[in-house]
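Standup notes
- DV: blocked on the single-chain target, sequence here:
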Amino acid sequence: MSAACGHCGKRLNDSLPFCEHCGVLQARDAAYECETHADRTAIGMCAVCYKPLCETCKTTSGVKMLCDDPAHREMVSHWSVVHYADSEFEADAIRQNLKAAEIESKIFSLHDHVALHFLSIDRAAVWVTQQELQKAIAVLSDLNLMTIIES
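- DV (later): unblocked, structure below
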């Protein structure tokens, strides 16, 4: 069983160096550099787009660490993760199924950032609006696709 994040309390994915729910880097051997300030060590990743952030770059919304993109504050206020995919291909398949059900979705991937390309992990989050969250859950459940809901 996975440990809980010391920052947000949610279950950690042991294959990731950070908490995919709040973005805080976990105590591991590797150090990551801030995407904006290459001379600074990252303390976490944006909980929306996974951009590596130093103390200066991070903003927060509740327990979630965010980058300086104003749209991401809006994302965590009005959108929720409906599925964490183990590949961008899987995330796109989820998005196509949601689109067929007329549900808008967005995908953010670890590989959207150059600093993380060396990770041998292909991870993507599929987001839907909170208004369509229950409909999205029903669609994915009907298709027997595993859903992981972020509260």
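- Follow-up: The CA atoms of residues 2 and 12 lie 6 Å apart.
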